[in-house]
Amino acid sequence: MKNIKTIIFDLGGVLMDLDKQKCIEAFEDLGFSDITEYLGEYEQKGMFMDLEDGTISATEFRDEVRKHIGEAITDQQIDEAFNRFLVEIPEQKLTLLRQLHKSYRLFMLSNTNPIMFESRIPELFRIQGLNIPDYFDKLYLSYQLGVTKPSPKIFEKIIADSGILPQETLFLDDSQKNIDAARKFGFQTYLVAPREDFSFIFGL
Q: Can you tell me which residues the record assigns to a coiled coil (predicted)?
């Protein structure tokens, strides 16, 4: 990794620890018996993917869940079940972001959804008394961009919007498919292992 000026971080599985099984169990408790057919480790399906790529709104998603389950469950019950996917952001990773932000432009590129990103995710970033914009120069979120990784379109949008040079940009993700897609554009990359402390790659 040489001549890095910008670092792009994935969120879930890179900065934030996840627990898909807790999310599955929470939805099953609501009566969503076939949730495993929709909820993947790196990629969602059906209404979950539609929410993630911005095809449907959070309101439409909740209505789809209720229709699928056939029960009059509340918005809060649905949101709480979905947010069980999110565990924590280790404090040392927030400290690392603050250190790196002194020397690099930092972006977030995440396949995410408005339910998580407008509730639980901001809470997890506040552990050091700061908010998400304090850590990043810009956020690129799939539901706002209308496309998810590993589609080439999402990388094209970031390059066009930010003016970054891929060869001067390091992209960290926990999905090999996303890493491979970024490499095709010339990004320098690092595949993050589950719950890995990757600070060593920055010499910290």
A: none
